[in-house]
Amino acid sequence: MTRLLEVQGLAKSYGGVHAVRGVSFGLAAGEILALIGPNGAGKSTCFNMLNGQIRPDTGTIRLEGRDTTGMRPRAVWRLGVGRTFQITATFASMTVRENVQVALLSHAHQLSVFHRFAGRSHAGEAEALLDLVGMRADAERPCGELAYGDLKRLELAIALANRPKLLLMDEPTAGMAPKERVELMRLTAAIAREQRIGVLFTEHDMDVVFEHADRVMVLNRGQLIAEGSPEAVRRDAQVRAIYLGEGLVYDARHREGRAA
Amino acid sequence: MEFLVVQFLTGLASAASLFLVASGLSIIFGVTRIVNFAHGAFYMLGAYLAYTLTERLEGAFGFWGGLVLAGLAVAALGALLEIVLLRRIYRAPELFQLLATFGVTLMVQDLVVVIWGPEDLVGRRAPGLRGAVEVFGQMVPSYDLFLIALGPVVLGLLWLVFKRTRWGVLVRAATQDRDMVAALGVNQKWLFTSVFALGVFLAGLGGALQIPRDAVSHAMDLRVIVEVFVVVVIGGLGSVFGAFVAAIVVSELNAFGILVMPKISLVLVFLVMAAVLVVRPWGLFGKPEGPARQAPGVSIRPWRPFSPGERIAVAAGVALAALLPLVAGDYALTVGSEIIIFALFAASLHFLMTVGGLASFGHAAYFGLGAYGAAFAAKAAGLPMEAALLAGPLLGLAGAALFGWFCVRLSGVYFAMLTLAFAQITWSVAFQWVEVTGGDNGILGVWPSPWAAGPRGFYWLALAVSAAGIAALRVLVFSPFGYGLRATRDSVLRAEAIGIDRGRVQWTAFVIAGTFAGVAGALFAFLKGSVFPENLAIPTSVDGLVMVLLGGIETVSGAVVGALVYKALAIWLMSQTELSKLVLGAVIVVLVVAFPKGIVGSVEELRARRNRSEPNGAAFGAAKMEAAE
Ligand SMILES: Nc1ncnc2c1ncn2[C@@H]1O[C@H](COP(=O)(O)OP(=O)(O)OP(=O)(O)O)[C@@H](O)[C@H]1O
Ligand SMILES: [Mg+2]
Q: Where in the numbering of this chain does the ABC transporter domain appear (chain A) (predicted)?
């Protein structure tokens, strides 16, 4: 049987910089796969290629056996891929509920409707999604005034609106307090297991990674250097070298910078 | 054949001064990220100052010295403007920067008339270059040959400055990465001022160099700025070499366009620009810009439809307006009709700008097309008014569909420049194609049907159509389509990631806005009984922008209030002063700097503040800061 996601020999370079090279992996439905690596390893570039935001130089991406390489993000989304961004991207001029409603309207192909009040459409579904991520009480709040952690949760709700088969989450918990991080990832994991959504996520917080990931891949300078169960990866000598060396220091600084 | 060579040389000579102006604009944009709309005004000032100086100063030295002095004087004025105005708005949204510098343009237009008078001035010929040189048996003015040589020389000098001087290296660094220069500890203020002064110097010099070739007039600023916009759109903003190449391309197209299509020569430029945009949206030598820093209209207070109370208030307002003919006289009703028509025009622009985040600087094109469409329908096809009012907007729709298709490929300042260029092209077609449009004489005798012929009848017609149009636009804002459109404005990234086709949605919005502007234009044609090219000229477009801004760019229906206040003020102002552009320009500048939320926006803010005593501005600020990381 074909797996949910099959990636073969993905590569992308900017000028002379090989951001990603020769990345291949697969992901099954309901599986939670972590992609870790130091800053600048190429994680976001991978995500951007997977959802069609940038076109890979070489390599193929297959979703349920179907080649999606080079498709536009909106086409990839229609095939059932939801994503969250490292730096949140939401609709600042709308309420929390409206943010989700737009995604639901789009999913239902209703955005070319020129009359009717959109504020009442899919209200129940929107409520349910917000409930799922624990933001029901904030439904009527302007999105522009949310704290960063809430924005991340809102993004998750938006990403779930098209009933995705695959969820791409680029640093879903960056900028959140440690307790919030654990909660959000627990929530994501529960949703994914229940709805059999495949999840690919990247994360700098190793506690989060090792608690939830079924499998872990390690990216360094654009290349996959290790892959396996969390325990195996944790024991991997090469990975330890990266994380005990410059990577970890840089990482800590990175996180501090964000908290400031 | 010989003739073609001479025509080619004439084109090259025109390219020189166009290149100077365009490269100045590009250099300024590269460092400050401001598209200096006032660049044409500085060009014009350069020409006027050069005229005065060369008249006063004697001899060859006086002439050439006069040209350079004029450029330097303009540079000083530019530096002053940068320090007084631009420093306040570097962080403002692009739209505000364009508008503020446009306000300056308006002020300068009136000022030059006050100082130099309304007549065109013919300057001195260049000493030593008065004659002509024979090329292939045809006479070419020696001054043209001088200009042809000057272009590459200036390009070379700029190259040297940027490559060989410390200042030039800093400018290049700043063009690539502004933060880096700040990190280097360079005095950024001084760098910006000097860059602005250099860019403006080039504009002033470009204007000064024109005086032996062309009469100096107070309309040359808009003419050149449109050409310059076309040049930078083709060559790529921020690229001096692109400006050089594109200036030649545009000038040659103009020179030969006259031969190929004497009536509508600008169409040729349009075709080339369109082709470049399709292949390379960022110009031949430009780099793709990131998304606009902040799309106009993004508000942090979500929009809501009217509450029942507000709905009653609006209905009462419309009812009151409908009762006006019972008390007002004919003149007041005619003015009232005009204001109401412009409310619809402003609402259509507002829809595109605030809801769609697309600041069009050429929205009058569709207003004017609607007016011409109605006039054609009434005069050429002999349709009655009712049918012409339906047919006219179709021309606005067609124009918006065609131009919009190109425009929505771009965003931010590129979008603004391109819409302006398209509007100008539409204007020149209306102006030049005399057989069809009547050219400057316009189309007269576009009369309404008998029932709407009186001021009263027409007032009611205008009110009914405009109110319906504005209501329809408002319904659109809150429709699923409106939500999708706002989504593309708020975050293109997120919109595309949830299946929204940005280009298609924005193009649809462009067509909708153009069609409603066309409806307003068709009404306007019947109100005036005539159509003129000025109906689709730049000042009409800017009127619309100011109405939206005055009403409040982050509001749903501010445009209507803005149109009422602005149009009433403008009509009153015209009757009070000769210097209406000076006042209007100053109003724009003040609005942008001191009152950016507009009337309705400010009222809403007051209300919000009163309703919620506990501000959560702090939380918002924190979220913003992190999100901006
Ligand atoms: N648009 C771009 N142009 C040039 N280089 C780029 C671009 N995008 C990414 N890169 C480079 O590609 C490499 C990988 O970047 P990427 O953002 O994928 O890393 P990352 O693993 O997501 O890092 P982080 O943990 O900081 O998010 C980096 O060296 C980066 O500088
Ligand atoms: Mg990243």
A: 5-246
Q: Whose CA is nearest to atom 1 of ligand 1?
A: A14
- By most ligand atoms within 8 Å of CB, the mutation choice from A10, A14, A53, A255 for ligand 1 is A14
Q: Which of A117, A122, A195 is nearest to A156 (CA)?
A: A195
Question: CA-CA distance, B174 to B192, in Å (whole number)?
Answer: 9
pTM over 0.90: no
Using the mean position of ligand 2's atoms as its centre, give its distance from the Cα of residue A225 in Å. Answer: 18
Pairing of strands A223-228, A215-220: antiparallel
- Both A42 and A150 in one domain: the answer is no
Do residues B137 and B1 lie in contact, with contact meaning Cβ atoms separated by under 8 Å?
no
Q: What is the distance between the alpha carbons of residues B360 and B510, in angstroms, rounded to a whole number?
A: 9
Side chain identity at residue B106, one-letter code: L
Burial class (CB in 10 A: 0-12, 13-18, 19+), B115: exposed
How far away, in angstroms, is B174 Cα from ligand 2 center? Answer: 26
Measured distance CA(B32)–CA(B86) in Å, rounded: 9
* Mutation for B interface: A145, A163, A256, most B CBs within 10 A: A145
Q: Torsions phi, psi of B484, nearest 5?
A: -65, -40
More confident site: B422 or B265: B422
**What is the A56 CA–ligand 1 centroid distance (Å)?**
14
How far the first Cα of chain B sits from its last, in Å, is 61
ipTM: 0.90
Mutational test site, ligand 1, from A18, A21, A39, A45, max ligand atoms within 8 Å of CB: A45
Quickly name the fold that domain B2-279 has. Answer: ABC transporter involved in vitamin B12 uptake, BtuC (1.10.3470)
Tell me: pLDDT of B268 over 90.
no
pLDDT tens per residue across span B545-556: 989 988 888 888
Site from B176, B494, B500, B505 to mutate, A interface, most A CB atoms within 10 angstroms = B494
pLDDT in tens, B326-362: 999 999 999 999 999 999 999 999 999 999 999 998 9
Contacts of A146 in chain B (CB under 8 A): 619, 623
Element spanning B154, H or E = helix B142-164
Query: Which residues have any ligand 1 atom within 6 Å of their CB?
Result: A 14, 17, 19, 37, 39-45, 86
Looking at the structure, tell me whether residues A176 and A135 fall in a common domain.
Answer: no
**What is the domain range of residue A59?**
3-80+164-259
The last residue of a domain, from among A156, A175, A199: A156
Q: What angle do CA B412, B101, B588 make, to 5 degrees?
A: 100
Helix axes of B538-551 and B94-116: crossing angle, nearest 10 degrees:
130
Beta strand segments in B101-189, E: 132-135, 138-141
Q: Residue B614 above 80 pLDDT?
A: no
Q: Could you tell me if A103 and A201 lie in one domain?
A: no
**Average pLDDT of the segment spanning B239-253:** 93
Domain positions in chain B: 2-279, 308-584
**Beta carbons of B50 and B67 less than 8 angstroms apart:** yes
Q: Which of A114, A142, A158 is opposite residue B479, by nearest beta carbon?
A: A114
